[in-house]
TrEMBL record:
One GO CC term on file: aminoacyl-tRNA synthetase multienzyme complex
tRNA synthetases class I (E and Q) anti-codon binding domain residues: 643-718
Cell compartment(s), UniProt: Cytoplasm, Cytosol
Protein known as: Glutamine--tRNA ligase
GO terms for MF: ATP binding; glutamine-tRNA ligase activity
NCBIfam families from the UniProt entry: glnS (TIGR00440)
Family annotation (Gene3D superfamilies): 1.10.10.2420, Glutaminyl-tRNA synthetase, non-specific RNA binding region part 1, domain 1, HUPs, Ribosomal Protein L25, Chain P
Every Glutaminyl-tRNA synthetase class Ib non-specific RNA-binding domain range: 3-161, 164-196
Binding partners and assembly: Monomer. Part of a multisubunit complex that groups tRNA ligases for Arg (RARS1), Asp (DARS1), Gln (QARS1), Ile (IARS1), Leu (LARS1), Lys (KARS1), Met (MARS1) the bifunctional ligase for Glu and Pro (EPRS1) and the auxiliary subunits AIMP1/p43, AIMP2/p38 and EEF1E1/p18. Interacts with RARS1. Part of a complex composed of RARS1, QARS1 and AIMP1.
Family membership: Belongs to the class-I aminoacyl-tRNA synthetase family.
E.C. no: 6.1.1.18
GO BP: any one term: glutaminyl-tRNA aminoacylation
Amino acid sequence: MADTLTLFTSIGLSEQKAKETMKNEALSSALKEAVTQAQRVHGASGVDKAMGTLLYNMASRLKDAKRLAFLADSIVQRKICTELQLAAALDFVKSHPQDPINQKEFEEACGVGVVITPEQIEDAVESVIKKHKEQLLKERYHFNMGLLMGEARSALKWADGKVIKNEVDMQVLHLLGPKTEADLEKKPKVKAKKEEVAVNGENFKTEGYVVTPNTMSLLKKHLDLTGGQIRTRFPPEPNGILHIGHAKAINFNFGYAKANNGICFLRYDDTNPEKEEEKYFTAIKDMVEWLGYKPYAVTHASDNFQQLYDLAVDLIRRGHAYVCHQRGEELKGHNAPPSPWRDRPIEESLVLFERMKKGLFAEGEATLRMKMVMEDGKMDPVAYRIKYTPHHRTGDEWCIYPTYDYTHCLCDSIENITHSLCTKEFQARRSSYYWLCNALDVYCPVQWEYGRLNLTYTVVSKRKIIKLVETGVVRDWDDPRLFTLTALRRRGFPPEAINNFCARVGVTVSQTTTEPHLLESCVRDVLNDTAPRAMAVLEPLKVTITNLPEDSQSDVRVPDFPANEAKGSHMVPFTCTIFIEQSDFREVMEKGYKRLTPEQPVGLRHAGYVISVQKVIKDAQGNVVELEVNCCRSETAEKPKAFIHWVSKPLTCEVRLYERLFLHKHPEDPSEVPNGFLSDINPNSLQVISSALVDTSVKGAKVFDKFQFERVGYFSLDPDSTADKLIFNRTVTLKEDPGKI
């Protein structure tokens, strides 16, 4: 570990950057190999920071690991010397996956050996300024200087950008002279037009979108059918429960459509019958609706099985797909060899695909593969595979099922989706998305990627949650310590708070890792306005008021929302026997303590009484078990330093107090938790109080009803509750624990 850190810092990486790199096993291995290769040529101290930066950028951006040695050698031999050349080199190897690489073509594409003289740069900039001279003199320094830079760089592709900028600055200064006060005034902003692609469905204007001779006619047909309406979809796989990351996807897909007066589909990607269960279909729809969204329609990929099959036949006829007999393990990884069946005759593949459909092959014996190279370097992704598993909707009708890479874009096209909104990891599939639609000459939606939402102190992968359930760490997918949506609902998180949290996090291209306390803050904001108050005592201490008759009872009015009493109130009984929190009494007075002591009275919230200790009663072990007190009306007593909550004739309830499930921020990170996430469980993540006392106002509560227990926290009624015993989950504390931030 130390040797690797030293190796990485020797090429100019900061210690922090080196440690971050080491956390990424694939990147660390690739960079180590590249640097070692460089040091064999230049010696341990001969790899300078400029070369080290190129090696790092190459290792972090290269998708096809088999090209690592080739590109590293080009950098080591100083053929690739600039970031611009590296970008061209990466593009070249991505578009030339087959061996061998033509060295001459590679060097021409990357500008190897091209020398740009200062005179060439001067002449190019002079030519560009001459072209825009009239507008430059008119707008002076408000002119878009980036335009000059761009045109000069286009003329001299391999020139150093900094040198071009310096030359532009110098020649502009020579033409216009120093800046005046008018030049320094800010140019008034012009309000940007709303992005046309969102309004008009002009997908072809989106960066990276592939335009074919049929694009415009297909778009016109699409616009005729949709009237230019924005159409999005939320496409979960029905093989697990939705989590907090899905909440962001739901908000973005449904929210984007709503903001543009469009519609959003809920489409189940049900193409893997082995892992799909009816309970997941139901739970997904429930969670979407719980968050407040109503799908325009609920659809299934399986609705289109016949059409998808027909399109696959068409893809073979067009020469873009073939039946392959390589086994699954032979297809794994980016270094899988090209299929020996890639060039088999079209008619032969058509016959074999028909045989696959009829169940004449064993599982794994044949697949349908598409003739394309994905952005991550993977060749010929699988379109169809054989699975002899009945489908929950189509039964035994099919024994071949389409893959995500084949199904996703075609279902989007069939449903006339305008925007395929997906998380950043699907960016590597964008080119295959466009390729397949264009290969079949069908309408092609546009794909936009955004950064997924991650939370610290949790895991959300299905496999790991199943492990937590199987090992008894949590009870089920809806255990309130998890961050599945069903778990958050059970814990008492309001859907509005989750939506507000997603809005606060926002939609960015970069990955977002957020602390749970930011979500909890959104929860408090909502519950403060919506959860009626009640009084509950978690660790009761009996208090007998000796100057009240034994049979005395009065009703005390408690406002549901003390800050706005117009929102209602409820009545609770007040008798000579009440219960307070053990922590609200101390036998020995301490500095700064403001609640009840033998020398210090305290007020009772809402009751209008102040109590003073007369006698402290203890058990045989010396524990305080009861207090005898006197009470007097608040109006006649000296104002106490504090008011505490209390209960009288209460309900006995169970209360479950939750803390973080994991001890470390990143329980899946081997550098933080070397022994795996199961070794990082917080032993105090759940505390059950079986005999808490709650005032009678909660008696008629329904499952998921929420309350603020005054001075204690926010709580929600758990589904385990019975008529005989209510069970409350603590949703969040009243204030954030500073130690958690």
